[in-house]
Specification:
Number of helices: 0
Number of strands: 11
Radius of gyration: 13 Å
Helix content: under 10%
Strand content: over 45%
Distance between the termini: 37 Å
Structural class: mainly beta
Largest sheet: 7 strands, mixed
Length: 111
């Protein structure tokens, strides 16, 4: 299974970005997919996850600003990020059950 993430970039504080991640390969019964991020000098942390039935979980720091969604038929997960803050700057990774990881996409929020 491979994960291909896209959609990162440079945005000003208060702006928005939408990340996409598509899973390909030998896929069977993918359940939880999620987004994680790692800022320089910090550990990787959970941003948001979504199960196959649509149940979501968010880090407190992004609740109300980020929205995770998925297209099950295409094994694709999205992360809509609004009201971005400089502290959201990090490399964002998509994952299947914290077992398979994508290559990461850089998000930089300028103040």
């Amino acid at each position: 299974v491979q994960l291909q993430a896209s959609g990162g970039g440079l945005v000003q504080a208060g702006g928005s970005l939408r990340l996409s991640c598509e899973a390909s390969g030998s896929i069977f019964g993918i359940n939880a997919m999620g987004w994680y991020r790692q800022a320089p000098g910090k550990q990787r942390e959970l941003v948001a996850t979504i199960t196959g039935s649509g149940s979501t979980n968010y880090a407190d720091s992004v609740k109300g600003r980020f929205t995770i969604s998925r297209v099950n038929g295409k094994n694709t997960v999205f992360l809509q990020m609004d009201s971005l803050k400089p502290e959201d700057t990090a490399v964002y990774y998509c994952s299947i059950g914290e077992l398979v990881w994508g290559q990461g996409t850089q998000v930089t929020v300028s103040s």
